[in-house]
Amino acid sequence: MRIGYGWDSHEFKSGIPLKIGGVTLPHNKGLGGHSDGDILLHATTDALLGAIAAPDIGSLFPPSDLQWKGADSVIFLQEALDRIRAAGYTIANVDSTLILAKPKIGPHAAAIRARIAELLEIPEDAIGLKAKTPEGMGTDNAAIAHVIVLLEKRHKLKQGSSRPGKKAAEKRK
Prior knowledge:
CATH 3.30.1330.50; alpha+beta; 5 helices
């Protein structure tokens, strides 16, 4: 088993969509960043990479490289997923905490969990998502994500089997 931890934060900016966990949320500001600013996918990517002692998201997709300007964070997450699979691991569970004043995440939590489950090819009940407010600590103009992942060593598959992440997810149901 391996455990990985990742976190990310970005400042709110006008004129861009707000993406959290691969879902576009209704809000008057989005999160600035070199890519699409999706703090939850960035933190999840770093947690997965950290669990296998791979380079972090900033090393693999440096902000100085213009090809990643405005990039969909799903690309980063997919690279991390490919790397953990190549290392022989599957995802057992993901637990995350978002810290932001607005918008309220509760009404969107199910959609975010469903999207992350789809992207990681694991069941929704393997994904924890909590949202907290900064309680007046001066971070109302930013959002923060913390993510922990647990990886399990993948068992050898029978001849002809494919997509180990999908198989592991089906076994858990």
